[in-house]
Amino acid sequence: MPNKRTKKGSSKKSPLSLEQLLLKILANNPGTLYGYKALHSKAGRRVYDADEVVDAVNRLWEKKLIDKTKGNRFKLAGKTDNAPDKSTSKGKSGSLGTLSSRKLIEGVVDMTSSGAAYIVSEQSERDVFVAASKLKGAFDGDRVKIRVGMRRGSRRLEGEVVEIVERSKSVFTGIIKVTQKFALFIPDTNIPLNLFLPLSKINGATDGDKVLVRIVEWVEEEGKKPIAEVVQVLGKPGENNAEMTAILANRGFPLQFTPDALAEADKLPDNIDPDEISRRRNFKGITTFTIDPVDAKDFDDALSIQRLQNGNWEIGVHIADVTHYVPVDSAMDKDAFKRATSVYLVDRVLPMFPEKLSNLVCSLRPNEDKLCFSAVFEMNQEAQVINKWFGKTIIHSSRRFHYAEAQEILDKGEGDLYQELNTLNQLAKTLRARRMEKGSIDFSSSEVKFVLDANGKPIEVVEKVMQDTNRLIEDFMLLANRSVAEFINTRPEKVPFVNRAHSTPDLDKLSEFRNLAADFGYELQIDTPEQISASLNAMLQQLQGKPEQHMLESLAIRSMAKANYTTHNIGHFGLGFTHYTHFTSPIRRYPDVMVHRILQQYLTDKNHISRDIETLEKRCEHSSIMERKAMEAERESVKYKQVEYLSERIGQVFEGVISGIANFGFWVELDQNKCEGLVRISSIIDDMYVFQDTQHAFIGSNNGKRYQLGGRVRVRIVSADLLARTIDMEVV
Questions:
Q1: What distance, in Å, lies between the first and last C-alpha atoms of the chain?
Q2: Does the N-terminal or the C-terminal CB of the chain have fewer CB atoms within 10 Å?
Q3: Residues 492-536 pLDDT 10s
Q4: Can you say how many angstroms the Cα of residue 135 is from the centroid of all Cα atoms in its chain?
């Protein structure tokens, strides 16, 4: 069966398209009714996002390849419905019959809201139903062994848990309710989790506090609850610190470093050993500087520039040498791998490494000697790379710019290091133009930044603007990343490597976007990868300044495949690169740490390169998973601040664009602050509006008025619910 799960729940993409995969799942289970969630589990929760599966299922239904029943349950078209509904059927009384002598299989728990679950297993063509009373303390995402059987007269596989192989999660956030004898826990997420907290284990929490709890004893006896203890009192619900911390904890990010990791960080030397300097290429006398966001503290990249005697330019891309200070399998290394990334919420950063390393020892601060791992390029005036060199260096940055500051110098044509900035900017523009000619897609979706008061409350929302200085840094980082990947991937020794891969888009998803774009007058050619990138770039240029710009840019990005880390080099479609990796941010991305170690090992002794590609691939998969969790946390923090911002503006009127539409209403993104809220169609009472799915619009039955995707509207803020993270609006 496609998309088999590997050990410990990791998954690999099926060679089939998602639609083909779903059809095969349904064909292997004729007559069985599947809900969206069950199909998502069967396809692979770690491989596909829920919205990808929902979109694919809906497309199959529209093509009449599958049938839909009441309650959004699906089966292969034309098959007899002789099986119970997978999501709602209740277990019948009576003992299980036999199936291969009631064999034992291993799989992953996919819980339903009722408390029952399905076990998704590579050893079974069908998911196995397990009643809540038979879970024996297993929880969503846990890997378990189950005994499988089939009841007489039923075609549904049923089972009971006999062993919990691996827990997926042991800490949760939520509200504590304290009684005279014990405490109860109400989780933030909508899951059937009942925990028992003895009063001796509530760690000073009071009734109504938002807390982080850890399960200390998974009681597997029927009728008994798992025993938990309060690890940390986060605060009161609605408090900024409590909510932001809960967002991180719910995604599985450790909130503190281990004592051993902090002890290692404290012992990091403040000075550089002179013997170490002598082993490195010295850039201390060459003009070197950093350009970063105004509030950045972890400067992990710097640029150097000097004119060579032959008239060419030597450009150094200098990256903090994290691996010099972090040995393999040290406590700091283990903590960093577990996080795999720094997480950037609206009001804070959860760093991948302790502060002493990320903000002091390795941060390329001005007027300090720093150890780096560098990619150095000799370039001519046309930005063609004549020679390249990779190796360990020491630098001395003479200047720290923030983006707006460097941009002002470029705009004025004068100021500190103007000539160097201008030369780098011209070279970067040439690199960019050549990259675009070769198929790189110029996605530049807008982002917002919140201005917060001392208590973390948003008082202003400003849009981030990409300027030449942002792109300058981006283009030289892309050059370094691409060059390192090309260097290692083309070695005759076939070195196992960490690639940043991005496959071509799913044609069905892209076709759907093409049809939507056509409704707005934009034509896309999608027959070949070259046509896709060329026509997308043309559309993105035409969109500039149009009302539908942000909406179509966002949908275009969603139509693309998701980039990931892997040992398999399939190139990077979005950038148009045959080879690509992440080398330039080892302070905040663990894959870059792995790349630094592989590159240094090859440069030092290529005969002793690790050939353990299986372990490397697992580390890549883990890094991809944690990257997605970090993105989810960042998006949730933005959404929370948007809701909080508009909760202070109930009744105010804004203009915006219809950014999404469904049969119950439409979403509006506000021009002024990019916040998004829902207008329920039932709130518009001047006519009876009919949802026209193919036209992406509601159309008035009598007045013909249209509320269409991409259309402009004026709306009033009606309500903002912080706990539900929702904003309701009404049309003015």
A1: 53
A2: C
A3: 989 999 999 998 887 878 888 888 888 888 988 888 888 898 989
A4: 31
